[in-house]
């Protein structure tokens, strides 16, 4: 325990120190929320790695590998980063050109008025809150293993630490610590992967002693089951605001593209390691163990305290930076897309900065409340991805490519698909929920747009080619 106390004290001390430094350096809302659109290649690359390696990677994906095997990598991790790369390769430059803060800003730039409120609510409450809760659950798991705390104590302590870091340092502190912590995360996953494979006798013994269903890239439901699972996860990453924020924060379009590709290729490769750890754990861990506990159990059992402490610090690094990214994401939605649009359109920079910090507290406390109700990290995360993806992917693509899309078409698509997704489990229909949701979203955005006219507030241009705000301002 002494090693854990030493490592955790040094780590959190350094984190709060960095945040305190940026507290005095941050002067504007732009500094706090988007790092003034000035972040360089290595910092963007590092923050992509760290933000993508949160509770889902260290805890959820190890547990998924433990329960379903390597098919989890194909249907969850690999597809997530393929869609992330599609976003970066095809949209990083045109999105960075828009010089925005949030995903909802794009809807407001295209449709005008209050069109960004629906995607803002989605991003803040349906994604940021539950995914922040997952990070708190992950932190409490580490504290339970290291200090024998109960879950509630661990989550409350985690909340205090996250609040202190994010209120003080904002996105600039998150990005700079992400860049450093990405190295720690990579080393932690590699050390644990090598250790556990050696523990079970090497790759040859692992393959020989593992049933084929846990080595196969296709899950037990066959190719169709694997593809439908992937459909519920992958498309969301086209509209994941954490990646959008990194694109917006980049100092220029070239940096957004190059850093985005580099970061996501790296995380695609390393994301195989949690599944390898989970499959290997089946050789010696009680198969009835709750899947979200496998990572912490294996780390504590296989590694000496000094090394295990470093692995846990790597996990905490991922969880802390993931949590701060998510609460800042939600806060930016509430501040930019709701407070400024609905209540104070002429808000000063000082007012926006103050409200940003207040909404960070609000989102974080909501995340703490949600954490007490989540029982499975993978299931909760997958649900959040599916709902956000179904509602936002096709309206986003229409904004980028189709000048004919109307505000009524986009809003009808978002609201209609949300209603169907929420009531679908009670309808008893034989079709996949995500497939029905995406199909309905596509049909609604196309049909309603063709049947309606553009509002006077719209800019009927394809965002892939034009900077929308320039035309709204008549520039």
Could you describe the 3D structure shown?
With 475 residues, the chain is an all-alpha fold. It has one domain: Sodium/glucose cotransporter. The protein is built from 20 helices and no strands. Helix 6 (103-111) packs antiparallel against helix 7 and helix 7 packs antiparallel against helix 15 (305-343). The radius of gyration is 22 Å and the shape is globular. The model has no long low-confidence stretch (mean pLDDT 87).
Throw out a few tags for this protein.
single chain; 475 residues; mainly alpha
In summary, what is this structure?
With 475 residues, the chain is an all-alpha fold. Helix content is 77%, strand content 0%. It has a single domain, classed as Sodium/glucose cotransporter (Up-down Bundle).
The proportion of residues forming helix, as a percent range, comes to: over 70%
Distance between the termini: 62 Å
Tell me the count of domains.
1
CATH topology, which one?
Sodium/glucose cotransporter
CATH class wording = Mainly Alpha
The radius of gyration computed from the alpha-carbon positions, rounded to a whole number of angstroms, is 22 Å
Main sheet? none
């Amino acid at each position: 325990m002494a090693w854990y106390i030493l490592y955790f004290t040094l780590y959190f001390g350094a984190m709060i120190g960095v945040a305190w430094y940026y507290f005095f350096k941050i002067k504007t809302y732009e500094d706090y929320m988007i790092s003034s659109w000035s972040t360089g290649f290595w910092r963007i690359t590092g923050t992509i790695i760290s933000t993508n390696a949160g509770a889902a990677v260290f805890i959820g994906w190890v547990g998924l590998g433990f329960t379903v095997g390597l098919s989890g990598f194909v249907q969850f991790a690999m597809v997530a980063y393929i869609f992330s790369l599609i976003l970066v390769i095809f949209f990083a430059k045109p999105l960075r050109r828009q010089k925005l803060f949030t995903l909802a800003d794009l809807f407001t730039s295209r449709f005008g008025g209050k069109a960004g409120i629906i995607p803002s609510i989605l991003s803040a409450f349906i994604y940021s809150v539950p995914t922040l809760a997952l990070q708190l659950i992950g932190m409490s798991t580490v504290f339970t293993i290291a200090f024998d705390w109960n879950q509630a104590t661990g989550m409350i302590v985690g909340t205090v630490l996250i609040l202190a870091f994010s209120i003080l340092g904002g996105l600039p502190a998150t990005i700079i610590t992400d860049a450093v912590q990405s190295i720690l995360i990579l080393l932690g996953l590699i050390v644990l992967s090598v250790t556990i494979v050696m523990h079970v006798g090497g790759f040859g013994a692992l393959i020989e002693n593992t049933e084929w269903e846990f080595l196969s890239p296709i899950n037990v439901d066959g190719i169709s089951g694997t593809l439908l699972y992937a459909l519920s996860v992958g498309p969301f990453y086209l509209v994941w605001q954490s990646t959008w924020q990194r694109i917006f924060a980049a100092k220029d379009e070239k940096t957004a593209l190059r850093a985005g590709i580099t970061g996501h290729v790296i995380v695609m490769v390393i994301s195989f390691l949690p599944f390898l750890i989970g499959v290997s754990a089946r050789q010696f861990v009680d198969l009835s163990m709750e899947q979200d506990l496998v990572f912490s159990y294996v780390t504590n059992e296989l590694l000496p305290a000094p090394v295990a402490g470093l692995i846990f610090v790597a996990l905490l690094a991922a969880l802390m930076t993931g949590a701060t990214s998510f609460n800042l994401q939600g806060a930016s939605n509430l501040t930019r897309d709701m407070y400024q649009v609905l209540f104070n359109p002429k808000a000063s920079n000082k007012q926006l900065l103050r409200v940003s910090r207040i909404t960070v507290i609000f989102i974080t406390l909501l995340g703490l409340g949600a954490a007490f109700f989540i029982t499975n990290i993978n299931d909760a995360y997958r649900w959040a991805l599916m709902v956000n993806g179904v509602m936002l992917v096709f309206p986003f693509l229409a904004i980028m490519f189709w000048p004919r899309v109307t505000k009524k078409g986009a809003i009808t698509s978002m609201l209609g698909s949300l209603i169907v997704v929420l009531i679908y489990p009670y309808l008893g229909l034989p079709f996949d929920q995500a497939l029905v949701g995406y199909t309905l979203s596509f049909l609604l955005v196309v049909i309603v747009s063709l049947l309606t006219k553009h509002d006077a507030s719209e800019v009927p241009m394809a965002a892939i080619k034009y900077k929308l705000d320039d035309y709204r301002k008549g520039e």
